[in-house]
Design a protein that fits this description.
The chain is α+β, with helices and mostly antiparallel strands and about 100 residues long. The protein contains two helices and six strands. The strands form two sheets. It has a three-stranded mixed beta sheet with strand order 1-5-6, with no helix packed on it.
Length: about 100
């Protein structure tokens, strides 16, 4: 998996992550479809942001701890290892994990 656009999160003090949906009082981790989508309310967990520019980072150890914690959280939740992290718009603006 390639995790892109990490740099656009850099200014956030907290990063909201949708972890489930409340549909008519029932929690689900499946994306609601059809009429259920209109009634769905996102359940959000907030992770600490890193609040600094990461666009020059090119190695995992260059990233702030909070950024790596975010990457590990996403890996755990999707059940798949993240191999690349995009930290800017330039072709070379990525980190291989």
């Amino acid at each position: 998996v390639a995790l892109t656009k990490m740099d656009v999160l850099s200014s956030l003090k907290e990063i909201p992550v949708c972890v489930a949906y409340d549909v008519d009082g029932e929690l689900t981790t499946d994306f609601p479809t059809g009429a259920k989508l209109d009634r769905a309310k996102p359940v959000v967990e907030k992770l600490p942001g890193w609040n600094c520019d990461i666009s020059k980072c090119r190695k995992p150890e260059d990233l702030p701890k909070e950024a790596m914690d975010y990457v590990r959280y996403i890996e755990k939740e999707v059940g798949c290892k993240i191999r690349y992290v995009s930290v800017g718009a330039e072709r070379e603006a990525y980190i291989e994990l």
